[in-house]
Specification:
There is one protein chain. With about 350 residues, the chain is an alpha+beta fold. The protein has one domain (about 25-345): Glycosyltransferase (Alpha/alpha barrel). It is built from twelve helices and ten strands. The strands form four sheets. Strands 5-6-7-8 form a four-stranded antiparallel sheet, with no helix packed on it. It has a two-stranded antiparallel sheet with strand order 1-2. A two-stranded antiparallel sheet has the order 3-4. β3 and β4 form a beta hairpin. α3 runs parallel beside α5 (about 120-135), α5 (about 120-135) runs antiparallel to α6 and α9 (about 250-260) runs parallel beside α12.
């Protein structure tokens, strides 16, 4: 046998080391179709209505958007179509392309929608889901619907104030005496980026930038967390029209940051520090003025979001819990959305 050259020996040794060395970074787990089937069986009716089991069985534009996003993620075109058709026929009742925010099953027939005000998060989610569906299944009608919603959202829900472009929570009821109240969890950063391709406008980037600026300013209490509702006074403060808490709305903010690829350590640190200080289960709500924490603990979906944030901060995929079947609609939705964001975040 001929002797190996020095170069060949080095290459052989390197190959041997690579063969036995652990991989540099684990890949995120793929989405489990069984979890989608469980979600469908518990929260989606046969005609495509997403049921809020923690809130009297009502349905929201937000919930329809969540269901539609998940249907695209799990490649379920038939369920997506049912969800969209129900949403279109039951909630798209305004004189524009936005959606009434709530539908009540206990109301008399024809009176299920008592308030036709829209909610920006629901409008965004539905438009985003349609844009993704159009791309995945090459369906032009979905893209056209996404564009119409996105254009009306910019026209009706975004406005310039103080040199920034704001996203109003709804068309009516959120500006008093010239001062706006916003909900920073409605800034769905990944949706802005994708809807800019469907309905091009510099407003999307302006909204994106304003959201980051507001988050940098909206830091309250010991942990410097954002409130569910923020009044844009000088300086900004937790709204007096709502409880001044970091709660069920604001827990979505870090999900949207990470999903949007915003890994700014300074923005993520408050959530990371808060989670670390309250292991294994932070309170569901925290009063940012008094510091009082609720006795109720954060749901599995909320805890998964905080795990995602720590994962993004470290740069390593996380181990997220499985959907068990005892979560309510909101907790289950947050959990599956966090798993979707995790998969997309670490597939980049």
């Amino acid at each position: 046998m001929r002797r190996l050259s020095a170069v060949a020996m080095v290459l052989a040794l390197a190959a041997a080391i690579i063969a036995v060395a652990p991989s540099a970074a684990p890949r995120p787990e793929r989405l489990d179709p069984a979890e989608w089937r469980l979600y469908q069986s518990r929260f989606i009716t046969a005609d495509g209505r997403v049921v809020d089991t923690g809130n009297g069985g009502v349905s929201h534009s937000e919930g329809q958007g969540y269901g539609m996003l998940l249907a695209v993620a799990y490649d379920d075109a038939a369920e997506f179509e049912r969800l969209w058709r129900w949403t279109e026929s039951r909630l798209q009742l305004r004189d524009d392309h936005l959606f009434a925010w709530r539908w009540r099953p206990d109301a008399p027939t024809g009176e299920e929608v008592a308030d036709r005000n829209s909610a920006a998060d629901g409008d965004l989610l539905i438009a985003w889901a349609l844009a993704r569906a159009a791309r995945r299944w090459q369906e032009p009608s979905y893209r056209a619907a996404a564009r119409a919603i996105a254009e009306d959202l910019l026209a009706k829900l975004s406005l310039e104030a103080g040199g920034q472009r704001l996203l109003l929570p709804g068309p009516a009821g959120f500006v008093h005496d010239g001062v706006a109240t916003v909900n920073l969890s409605y800034w769905i950063f990944p949706a802005f980026r994708e809807l800019a391709e469907v309905a091009p406008s510099p407003a999307w980037q302006q909204l994106d930038a304003a959201g980051i600026t507001l988050l940098e300013a909206a830091r309250f209490g010991r942990w410097q967390l954002p409130p569910d509702w923020l009044t844009l006074a000088l300086p900004p403060r937790p709204s007096r029209r709502f409880p001044p808490v970091f709660g069920y709305n604001a827990i979505r903010i870090p999900l949207h940051l990470v999903w949007g690829g915003i890994d700014d350590v300074d923005l993520l640190r408050p959530f990371v520090d808060y989670a670390a200080a309250h292991e294994p289960a932070p309170p569901a709500t925290l009063d940012l003025i008094s510091g009082e924490a609720s006795a109720e603990r954060l749901s599995a979906g909320g805890r998964a979001i905080l795990t995602l944030v720590r994962s993004a901060a470290s740069g390593e995929p996380a181990s997220l819990p499985s959907l068990k079947g005892d979560e309510d609609y909101f907790a289950a939705s947050l959990l599956l959305l966090t798993k979707l964001a995790h998969t997309e975040r670490f597939a980049r």
